[in-house]
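Are you able to produce any protein sequence you like plus the matching backbone structure tokens because I've never seen that pairing?
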Amino acid sequence: MTEPGTVLITGPTRNLGRHAVLAMAARPAGQRPDLLLVGRAGRDLTAVADEARVLGARVHEIGCDLANLADVRAAAATARSLLADGAVRPLRALVANAGTMSPDTRRASADGYELTFAVNHLAHAQLIGDLLTSFTAPARVVLIGSNTYHANFWRKLLQVPGAKWADPAELARPAGGEQPPGMAASGVAYSNAKLAILYYAHELQRQAGRGITVSVFEPGWMPGTALGRGAPAAVQAVSRALGRIPGVSMPQRSGPLLAAMALDERWAHLRDGAFVVKTKLTEVQPVAHDRDRERRLWEATAELLDRASVSRTPDAEG
């Protein structure tokens, strides 16, 4: 069995991320990883770190606003420093858990990008890119996907539309004018970001070094999490009602499954953006495989990240 080393996870303070952190921290000593928790600095981050320490884990908090790419670059630098100094064991897994669904597609990140696309995709692409040479093989990258990239029955019931793909430079641009009513625009933006994650996973596997595998975890629909707080009241009411159906996903159930994706030998063979829904390896829809879109996303992502880096340098600001 591979020594668990260190796991870096974003979005560790609540819901899925918090329960994944606590599941990893609660493992027996020989199976328990060191933890790098990347999230907004403050009481919530400190609280989950302290809970994990009580369970026996060695934990480092790395304060980071994922809507600010300068913060993400600084978080990656902190992680590299901790690894280089031997403060934690070798980096074996990165779990890109953090996500958001902005209720207004006109909202921009600190770098001027549409907020949903910026946090769900660009921030993690920056973080992973900055840490690719810091992994110790065998290592895993686990991204968080969603079946919202295509509209099935349940998504239609909740008025969550499927993706409407466009060039990534366009997806990164905040909307102008009036925000359409309801969840149409924000739902499309979220679904586009989740389709981007699948495209990125496939291309990342081609670009990553030997010994790094890439997979995508779908935790199942979890009613009542923060992602739905911008939804209309009627949709939130339907969501709460459906949340009482037996078998519907909950963070307490899905968190340990995410921890398993990062650590268990059962999933060690996954690569090429393999898509796991809870515990089942699942074939994605044909739209989620497109070499031209995947190459263009990789290229455009590099351009968007470089542009943000240049625009936020002291010389540029002066």
